[in-house]
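Lecture notes, continued. The same structure-token format from the folding unit now serves as the input rather than the output. Read the line below as a description of shape only.
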């Protein structure tokens, strides 16, 4: 009898496990245990669904968002480059119009409290408005996007199913794109594995990590290698070429300051800086070593540059290479 009971219990267990496996659970964006708390607090209660993610992904890769249906978000944000614009110093929008800034990676957005090089947007849902309406990028009007999507039977049905709306509104479009963008979490690089104790650094990588922590982490701090503060790192003399943070705050002290970028996936996102004017990591290191331009908003910590021998520069680059997350580049959920 006891045997029969335990047998039945065993069958019950197997069935439970099996049925749980069949029912797909969608947890939304991964929150890696070694990351800090998310900065986009308003996302804590957002309901994420697989269908919403797929709809957001479709919108991200659909040129319908641009004025002449030639450019999608994915044109300038490519997965192989951690969703940055591969091989472009400045972005190329509709009709081959040249933008004025370099397209950064799209990754770990939930941990940013501002977006864009100048921090012009604070809420993750509002990101898409800027590229859609930027004349040099998609040059479309959001109201026209709303009209186009409402005329499209696929989108109408999808928005109805997911957000229970008969008519698609701007905020529904923004929310769907957020469902896709928020999922773009990059947290499986060798550096992450090192932190979890499942990857051993080579001696060069270890040396590089130590140097990086001493010389770079005052600004590129923490597991995301940034505190996201606006600064000027002296790579050009003339702050009027692009006034950066000033354009948002109108505070003269902010002229020529830009958001300190996260360095995750940095090896696969050349060229560098807000205008893409530095082509390689070697040149970035040489910039900090010998190329600092004394302009009025230069961060005081960089006044004397960061003296580094060639070997030290190489070690830091070895460390930066451990920030490349191949899983992120190849994750088929995010692909076109
Ligand atoms: C023509 C190229 C182009 C297109 C199209 C484009 N982007 Fe961008 N994206 C850029 C550039 C350039 C920047 C940097 C702009 C700045 O900082 O002023 C950027 C910045 C961003 C950022 C900021 C990342 C950060 O860490 O601050 C996000 C997110 C983003 N884009 C998402 C999108 C989405 C979503 C779309 C489609 C609705 C889109 N982009 C379309 C070029 C483009
Ligand atoms: C005083 C703060 C500060 C220090 C110290 C600092 N950086 Fe930066 N770093 C910045 C800022 C700000 C930017 C963005 C500048 C811009 O685009 O105008 C930047 C940009 C970069 C970029 C370009 C990233 C991209 O996606 O374009 C790299 C790479 C980089 N830094 C590496 C380093 C390394 C390596 C060190 C140490 C040797 C270092 N930084 C030290 C503030 C700093």
């Amino acid at each position: 009898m006891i045997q029969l009971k335990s047998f039945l219990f065993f069958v019950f267990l197997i069935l439970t496990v099996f049925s749980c496996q069949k029912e797909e659970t969608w947890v939304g964006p991964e929150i890696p245990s070694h990351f800090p708390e998310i900065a986009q607090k308003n996302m804590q209660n957002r309901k994420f669904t697989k269908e919403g993610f797929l709809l957001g992904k479709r919108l991200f890769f659909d040129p319908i968002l641009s004025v002449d249906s030639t450019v999608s978000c994915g044109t300038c944000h490519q997965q192989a480059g951690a969703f940055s614009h591969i091989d472009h110093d400045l972005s190329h929008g509709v009709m081959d119009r040249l933008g004025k800034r370099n397209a950064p990676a799209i990754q770990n957005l939930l941990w940013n409290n501002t977006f864009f090089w100048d921090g012009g947007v604070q809420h993750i849902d509002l990101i898409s408005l800027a590229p859609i309406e930027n004349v040099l990028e998609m040059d479309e009007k959001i109201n026209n996007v709303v009209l186009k999507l409402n005329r499209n039977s696929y989108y109408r049905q999808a928005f109805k199913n997911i957000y229970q709306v008969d008519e698609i509104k701007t905020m529904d479009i923004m929310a769907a794109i957020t469902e896709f963008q928020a999922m773009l979490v990059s947290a499986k690089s060798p550096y992450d594995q090192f932190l979890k104790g499942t990857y051993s650094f080579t001696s060069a990588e270890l040396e590089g990590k130590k140097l990086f922590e001493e010389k770079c982490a005052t600004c590129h701090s923490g597991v995301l290698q940034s505190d996201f503060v606006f600064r000027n790192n002296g790579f050009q003399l003339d702050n009027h070429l692009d006034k950066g943070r000033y354009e948002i705050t109108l505070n003269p002290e902010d002229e020529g300051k830009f958001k300190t970028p996260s360095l995750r996936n940095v090896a696969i996102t050349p060229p560098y800086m807000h205008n893409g004017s530095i082509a390689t990591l070697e040149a970035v290191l040489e910039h900090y070593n010998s190329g600092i331009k004394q302009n009025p908003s230069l961060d005081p910590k960089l006044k004397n540059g960061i003296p580094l021998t060639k070997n030290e520069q190489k070690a830091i680059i070895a460390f930066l290479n451990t920030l490349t997350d191949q899983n992120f580049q190849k994750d088929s959920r995010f692909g076109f």
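Point for the exam: The two ends are 57 Å apart (CA to CA).
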